[in-house]
Design the sequence.
């Protein structure tokens, strides 16, 4: 059967199958986000604690650690699906980076409020403290802020 279809049809079939698998993976990931996030965060905290015992924490090291933990959360909570590299796939005029974003969200509390409440009409889910504790929220915001590195808060 596979030999009787054209190269373009094979490519299309592969894309459809991959898209279906990615959709199922995202759904499964969304269902297990709480468990996965806790597991990954614990692993990162352990690694951070072990690697920083010998050297004192400098602000840049703390920021780098928070940014990496935030990146992991961003992917595990499936934020990257709609906001790849800080963009916005559904609403391209509303990216999570750039001078307009920084001007609109001058304070981290504004970003936190948006994440906690979500934007149901735009398809963004809300994240309660049970799903994302305050420490994780700050790591996530640190990562989001890293999309516009030269921005002044």
Sequence:
């Amino acid at each position: 059967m596979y030999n009787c279809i054209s190269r373009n049809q094979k490519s299309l079939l592969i894309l459809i199958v991959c898209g279906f698998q990615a959709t199922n993976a995202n759904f499964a990931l969304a269902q297990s986000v709480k468990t996965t996030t806790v597991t990954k965060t614990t692993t990162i905290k352990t690694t951070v604690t072990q690697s920083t015992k010998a050297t004192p924490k400098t602000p840049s090291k703390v920021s780098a650690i928070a940014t990496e933990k935030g990146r992991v959360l961003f992917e595990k909570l499936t934020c990257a699906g709609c906001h790849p590299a800080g963009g916005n796939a559904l609403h391209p005029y509303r990216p999570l980076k750039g001078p307009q974003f920084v001007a609109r969200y001058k304070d981290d509390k504004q970003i936190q409020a948006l994440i906690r409440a979500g934007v149901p009409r735009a398809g963004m889910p809300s994240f309660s403290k049970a799903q994302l504790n305050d420490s994780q929220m700050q790591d996530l915001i640190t990562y989001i802020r890293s999309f516009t590195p030269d921005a002044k808060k």
Summary: The two ends are 59 Å apart (CA to CA). The domain at 34-145 is CATH 1.10.760.10 (Cytochrome Bc1 Complex; Chain D, domain 2). The chain is about 60% helix and 0% strand.
